Amino acid sequence: MSECLFCKIVARTIPAALVYEDEQVVAFDDINPQAPIHTLVIPRTHFASMAELQDADVTLLGRLMLAGNKVASLKGIADAGYRFVVNTGIHGGQSVFHLHLHVLGGRHMGWPPG
Amino acid sequence: MSECLFCKIVARTIPAALVYEDEQVVAFDDINPQAPIHTLVIPRTHFASMAELQDADVTLLGRLMLAGNKVASLKGIADAGYRFVVNTGIHGGQSVFHLHLHVLGGRHMGWPPG
Which end of chain B is flanked by fewer CB atoms within 10 Å, N or C? Predict the structure, then answer.
């Protein structure tokens, strides 16, 4: 069994309230939110980070982003606006090594982005 | 002729040093960088924002992200790590209304992401 926290959420061995799910991805709220709305979208398949993704994964990546749009709509922030963030490696500030897209909104997101 | 600044860069009617280009996307450095490396990846096709993208655009979105990986490699930040950011609408902090992926690195990106 994988020790990956997010794989356990996908497998439902750790409970999480899912915001959205389909065949490819799962979305749930960040446990340490940085904005009124802060949801993570992850692929069901394990990739340690964005750096692992290859040309063959092009559709999965597109679906990850489109699922981010769906989350924005479900959370009621589609019209006001929102930010997507993907952190890769140390300089990116990645903390969980299973690819995830942050969807943030519900406030004006500042600049620079971290 | 479009008045969109980024469409003009795609059309080469405004000069920009391209970091990367392929059939679908073009990448160039942000003129107001927020990190030592700060490059934008945009689709050649005009979309005002991420909110306009539909299921039919899934491949284009995947290519946008994969091109972000290519930019990270070309800029020499793939190993140290990097951050992708996409701003949508007012709360997202979007300033140019042609879809663009920010690729940031060369320093440790902080948290929260804006």
Answer: N
Q: Within a domain: residue B113?
A: no
Provide ipTM, 2 decimals.
0.97
Do the domain assignments include residue B33?
yes
What is the chain A residue with the closest CA to B77?
A91
- Interchain proximity B34–A111, CB inside 8 Å: yes
pLDDT in tens, B23-77: 999 999 999 999 999 999 999 999 999 999 999 999 999 999 999 999 999 999 9
Stretch (H or E) spanning B58: helix B58-74
Residue B111 lies in a domain: no
Backbone phi and psi for residue A44, each to the nearest 5 degrees, phi listed first: -65, -35
* Strand pairing report for B18-21 and A101-105: unpaired
- Contact list, B81 vs chain A (CB under 8 Å): 87-94
Nearest residue on chain A to B63, alpha-carbon basis: A58
pLDDT band at residue A2, thresholds of 50, 70 and 90? confident
B102 is catalytic: no
Number of domains in chain B: 1
Query: What is the number of other CB atoms lying within 10 angstroms of the CB of residue B42?
Result: 23
**Helices first, then strands: H and E counts in chain B:** 3, 5
Q: Does B97 fall in a domain?
A: yes
User: Which residues of A are less than 8 Å from B112 in CB distance?
Assistant: 34-35, 104, 114
Domain harbouring A100, CATH code: 3.30.428.10
Structural domain including B23 reads: 5-105
Residues of B in contact with A57 (CB under 8 A): 62, 66
* Residue B62 · residue A25 · CB < 8 Å: no
